[in-house]
Amino acid sequence: MRRRSLRLRLLVTFGLGALVISSLFASLTYIGVKHLLISNQQQTDLRQSYVNAALVRSTLYSSPTELSDLLNSIQKATASNVLVQTHNEWLARSNRASTVDVSPTTIKTVGAGHATEQTLNARGRIIFVVGVPIPSVETQVFEVFQLDDLERTLRTMALVLTLGALFTSIVGMSGGIWVTRRTVRPLEEVSYAAALIAEGALTTRLQVNRADREVQQLTESFNQMVSQLVLRLERDARFASDVSHELRSPLTTLATTASVLQQHRDDLTAAGRESLDLLVADLSIFQSLVEDLLEMSRSDAGAVPLVMENLSAIELVHQSVRSAARRHGIDEPPVEIAEGVGDPLVLVDRRRFERVITNLIDNAHRYAEGAVALRVDVLGTQLAVNVDDAGTGVPRDEHDQVFERFFRGRAAHDRGIARGTGLGLALVRDHVSAFGGTITVTESPEGGARFQILLPIVKSGPS
Amino acid sequence: MLGAIALAGCSLVPTASSPQLIGPTHVPFGLLGKTIPGTNNGRVRFITQPVYIVDATGHLSSTSRIVPSPPVLESVLRQLIIGPTKIESGGGYTSALPKNLIILSASFRGGIGYIDLATTLSKLPRSQEVLAVGQLVLTAHVVGLTLGIEVKGVEINVAGVVQNSPLPGNHEANLMTTQDFQSLLNS
């Protein structure tokens, strides 16, 4: 399962959290205030209805002819319409009152002696109708209140709360961005620095942020860890270099002695000759190992500086192939230059580049029936040097591992070869990386392994 | 969601499909009582009683007064003396009957309406007197109808003496019917 980014998760959490909380708050506020407003309005209207009904009764009893004037006065004072009915006939109503507002059900219920209230939508307007029977004057009083103001208030409140919730969400999300940036940035910096260090930039350090105690602690710890690591690496490299160096003299003596013994080989018994052959072979391996180890440890310790030069890539490849063939006593594999490559220049250390080619050819010779060809091509802005061998290829799961130090692949075991140093390809990768290039292993067109070196072209030469 | 509700046309105030009953105990002022508080078991029924007043064009026009049921002729006729309501006055309506007119009695006997006045109407200009008599006769007639009486005519007395009252077209009569005032009715 693909993991989501921490930044995104924090952002979504803050944003959604703010949205949920503000929505909840807005909803609860709306529900509470709405209930309160409606309840207050209806209670006020009800009380007013009772007072007005009592006034109607009083007016009817004392001066019934003034009833219409009373209803109009009520309408002017309270903006509510009052209708008075007796025995299913409208006795009087205020000027703007409409009998349509009072439903037949309300009329029937109030006529039966029950006081009622009802909020309804009448022709697109929200009205509150209160019906009060007055048996003592055999009339029913209906008062119709307009709730348009209340409706407008609720609508405005809903809109304001929604905008408030949205604003709060945006603020929450902004806060999330700010917090995420402060939280994740140090992690990203650590990650980036770690990647740089992994690529070999051991001088990389984090800038200590003194604003946040935790971040300061993290960066200081990280820097301290890297410093310790570098010290340890340098110490190890120096140790390996020293050991290798110290081993060279006795090894040379041993090799010289073996060489002398070789000259008197015929004087030895058959068992002695066999022992001598084994000794010479192992000495050769041992010498190679010590040389590789010495070169690698010096390189790690920075003891041998890179001598970078702009060199003709084609000439360099030819020269390296010749050197490798001479060194290993093998036939030079063919060098095939792709059409249109020209004579590009690459910035490399000549000695190390030759070592790269030598090691790759040696690797092909040792584990894969030799190199088929060295093919040079240009891929975009990079020079590709492909060393194709005649073997069966490197298993896909070993493509990355083959460049690890002391890694020995299945090919070595299958072929019963146990005399490689396990450092040749690791050294190749270190040198190519030092040139700013990369090396990968794929399959060659012939089915064997293809070790492809990609180097940045400094200058494209004429074709 | 709130925003959608606010922007949508639907109502935010909850409505009810049917009226809700209010408990009798919640209705104050004894409104649900069978009698009017402070009276001796008073219970009154009211009706809308048609009466006649004079419109802005000088014709007799029908309007109504809320009166206790059954209507009492004398009480209804007193409404004519009180005159038009504020709204009627605003519309140019008047009463031809003088404010100081006193009705001694008014009643129906044998299908005849008897109206006994304390003073004569003859002091009024003739045209106003005709309208005043018309108001009394037509109103008495409709009160009779409300009471279920077939009114054959109306007689106006002054202090118990039968009067000849003026009619439209320089006629006079002591027993008047609605037919006598048809020409004065607002069509």
Total number of domains of chain B = 1
Record field, number of beta strands of chain A = 12
Describe the sheet with the most strands of chain B: 4 strands, mixed
**What is the rounded distance between the termini of chain A?**
50 Å
What oligomerization state is this entry in?
Answer: heterodimer
Mean pLDDT of chain B: 89
* Helix residue percentage of chain B: 10-25%
CATH topology of the largest domain in chain A: Heat Shock Protein 90
**What is the largest interface, and how many residues per chain?**
A-B, 64 and 45 residues
Helix share, percent of chain A: 55-70%
What's the count of strands of chain B? Answer: 9
Task: Sketch the major β-sheet of chain A.
Answer: 7 strands, mixed
| Proportion of strand residues of chain B | 25-35%
N-to-C span of chain B = 61 Å
Overall number of structural domains of chain A: 3
CATH first level of the largest domain in chain A: which class? Answer: Alpha Beta
- The sequence of SSEs of chain B as H and E is HEEEHHEEHEEEE
Task: Report low-confidence residues of chain B grouped into runs of 5 or more.
Answer: none
Q: Could you say which overall geometry of chain B the principal axes of the C-alpha atoms support?
A: elongated
Please work out how many helical segments of chain B DSSP would assign.
4
